[in-house]
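Structure (tokenized):
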């Protein structure tokens, strides 16, 4: 099993989790679901969102077959306007490669984490393990507690060809 800061954190906190190794490249959430043989609704991707007037980015954690609803997220957190940074900007803001951005790898950075409320329908979900090629399955309650995530309806199903991965 791959060991990194995320797996060490989960082990230290005695949180049950499963780690899955995938190809060490940027792959979509839908492809992750296919490779793991699980329902895509169980795979959650972390989308970096920036505020129009600066400040810390927001981590929107949403189901793989969905896209961030920027208006809903902005209304939920009391912002007028939010935007999606480029992949390069997201990597610079987080210090992580796209495909490996994880709220668990960014706990010390103080980012606001907003988890789509659809996650509450599941006991466990899959998220990135903080590096490309590592996927973690863990209890939703543990993810919320560790990241102090707020939950809200912040995503909509993706239309063909508009994936935010």
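Design, position by position:
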């Amino acid at each position: 099993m791959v060991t990194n800061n995320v797996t060490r954190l989960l082990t230290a906190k005695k949180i049950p989790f499963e780690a899955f190794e995938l190809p060490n490249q940027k792959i979509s959430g839908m492809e992750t679901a296919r490779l793991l043989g699980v329902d895509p609704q169980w795979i959650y991707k972390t989308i970096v969102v920036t505020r129009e007037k600066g400040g810390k980015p927001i981590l929107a954690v949403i189901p793989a077959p969905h896209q961030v609803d920027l208006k809903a997220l902005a209304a939920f957190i009391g912002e007028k306007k939010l935007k999606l940074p480029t992949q390069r900007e997201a990597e610079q803001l987080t210090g992580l490669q796209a495909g490996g951005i994880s709220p668990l790898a960014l706990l010390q950075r103080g980012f606001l984490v907003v988890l789509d409320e659809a996650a509450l329908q599941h006991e466990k979900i899959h998220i990135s393990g903080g590096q490309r090629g590592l996927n973690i399955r863990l209890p939703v309650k543990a993810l919320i507690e560790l990241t102090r995530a707020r939950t809200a309806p912040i995503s909509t199903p993706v239309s063909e060809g508009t994936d935010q991965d």
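Reviewer-requested clarification: The chain has a mean pLDDT of 94. The beta strands are 18-21, 44-51, 58-63, 66-68, 82-83, 112-116, 124-128, 134-139, 150-152, 155-157.
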